[in-house]
Amino acid sequence: MWLDAPSLGNLALDFLHTLRRSRGGTTDLVRTPETMAAWLLTYAGAAASRLHEPLRPPDGRLLLDEAQRLRRDVGGLVATYAGTGSLDPGAALGINRVLDAYRRSTLLVAEGGRPALAERMHGGSSLMPLGPIAEAVARLVCTVGPDRIRSCASDRCKAWFVDTSRGGRRRWCSMATCGNRQKASTHRSRRSRTRA
């Protein structure tokens, strides 16, 4: 499940990774309103705080539909940007639609006698819980070069990640999983060829 998945370093990329492609097909880890709400509560912070209450069926369905639409837009934006360094206008329009509904303000408050920052969410749009995802992808393409956004080299994964390595040669989203799996597969292949 998605709770045991390592973070890819960006909320939007983590959200894209809820749609897993493998040799056996595609698995959607947030295919119901309940799993979508749970994912948002786990990853999206204050924007998803209203999801602690059970969603009415129409609201849950709307949230899921909007989330799937946003995931397609994020995927299109990331793929186009990583491949060409430019923005997909249609995907950018979808991202901006969510960003426009995402209203928050930061307040200075006292917590236990100490100063702290708190976020306050405004408005009641069904898109608001998805705002942090849209903001994360917008910040990603504005701050990371297209040559540093990569798709995992593993045939079993293909998750997008940000290459933060010094030389810029990272190939796998996670060396601990995909990288080790690939190295083990290569080693087994070499051993079987030497035996033949």
Task: Give your account of this protein's structure.
The chain has 196 residues and is an alpha+beta fold. 47% of the residues lie in helices and 16% in strands. It has a single domain (2-149), classed as Jann2411-like domain (Jann2411-like fold, Orthogonal Bundle). It has helices spanning 11-16, 33-43, 57-84, 89-101, 131-143, 175-195; strands at 19-22, 25-28, 103-111, 114-122, 149-151, 160-162. The protein has a two-stranded antiparallel sheet with strand order 1-2. Strands 3-4 form a two-stranded antiparallel ribbon. Strands 5-6 form a two-stranded antiparallel ribbon. Helix 2 (33-43) packs across helix 3, helix 3 crosses helix 4 and helix 4 packs across helix 5 (131-143). It starts with 10 loop residues before the first helix and ends with a helix.
* Strand ordering within the main sheet: 1-2
End-to-end Cα distance, whole Å, is: 39 Å
The amount of beta strand, in percent, is 15-25%
Rg calc: 19 Å
Domain module count: 1
What is the H/E string? HEEHHHEEHEEH
CATH class: Mainly Alpha
What composes the largest sheet?
2 strands, antiparallel
**The CATH homologous superfamily:** Jann2411-like domain
What would you call the structural class? alpha+beta
What oligomeric state do the depicted chains represent? single chain
Q: Could you say what the CATH topology is called?
A: Jann2411-like fold
> pLDDT under 50 segments (min length 5)?
none
Helix content: 40-55%
The CATH architecture is: Orthogonal Bundle
Count the helices. How many? Answer: 6
How would you describe the shape? globular
Mean pLDDT: 84
Number of strands: 6
